[in-house]
Amino acid sequence: MKVAIVHYWFVGMRGGEKVIDALCELYPQADIFTHVFVPDAVSDRIRAHRVTTSFINSLPRARSMYKSYLPLMPLALEQLDLSGYDLIISSESGPAKGIIAPPDALHVCYCHTPMRYIWNMYHDYRSGAGRITQLLMPPMSHYLRMWDVSAASRVDSFIANSATVADRIERYYRRESVIIHPPVDTSAFTPILTSQLGDYYLMAGELVAYKRPDLAVHAFNQIGRKLVVIGGGDMLDELKRIAGPNVTVMGSQPFEVLRDYYSHCRALIFPGEEDFGMVPVEAMAAGRPVVAFGKGGATETVAPGLSGVFFQSQEIDAIRAAILQLDEMAIDPGKISNHAARFGKQAFFKGFRSHIDQLLDLKSGTVSRLEA
């Protein structure tokens, strides 16, 4: 079976790219199509595949300004020639599903979320943008929404990475989806003895506005407990500026360093609403509890009373109350790690294979009946 994987861009190894890495393990013969490809920014497994880029990759400063070319990406996708492929898997949170599939191909979209900057978080993104972007966003987003809904009709089956995303797919595309949680390499983490823990809390991940890292920094400035921040992103410099003496902003770090900080933290702080959120699962795999905002994907992975606590409003007092609640909770690192194993790679492989096999069997049966 000839397989194509379509991903919006490869400029780092974040959650979406980790899913692609797992798909490359599942389909080692697959070819990859994308808008922008930075080989040094991705895993060896992804680099081992044949990668075809759209014309976006050849535009000026595409590696750093790829999001500026968003209005051109629908056109770029439709120029990609996927003739001869039997299975096409598009990976969507930026434009990816809008390819023109061959008539006989099966097109499955693994949706991390419908593009949040034109749908559920449009007003947040626009209010935080510069003046020129604020002026351009309404007409561009209007055009992109119409194209996005049209592109959704080209997909044979949607897979959502969480129930939260499944609700958005139904809301914006009027399509049903199957929920298959993304793969987390839970086997890479091992709980340590409680006596070996550090005296700090941890916030990790991409430092962008919708994840609310600023809220966590402000909260710990007031609470006075130690917070370590690991990650890169648009808000890195701002967080360094506002961090108090008890907050250490480390920026991006190698996985080995992040893994060590996961293992030794008192708890992970997760202040934003995520589509799924691999970071809390990684922290739990290391045996550490999570203090999370009680919306989005975290509500599907964090078990209150077992692996963490929720706060229900994005306010400093709510975070303080949740931390005090965690202080009173009995923490069992082994049970937390076992809970996280439910979201490991093998569960993803099993669910994905099963769904694709069912779709192929259904497609084969339909073709047989038509030929008869």
UniProtKB/TrEMBL annotation:
Keyword Transferase: yes
Name of this chain's protein: Glycosyltransferase family 4 protein
Record-annotated membrane-spanning stretches: none
UniProt domain Glycosyltransferase subfamily 4-like N-terminal: residue ranges: 14-187
Presence of the UniProt keyword Chaperone in the record: no
Domain Glycosyl transferase family: residue ranges: 200-331
Listed InterPro entries: Glyco_trans_1, Glyco_trans_4-like_N, Glycosyltransferase_grp1
One function term, GO molecular function aspect: glycosyltransferase activity
Signal sequence range: none
Pfam families: Glyco_transf_4 (PF13439), Glycos_transf_1 (PF00534)
Record's keyword terms, sorted: Transferase
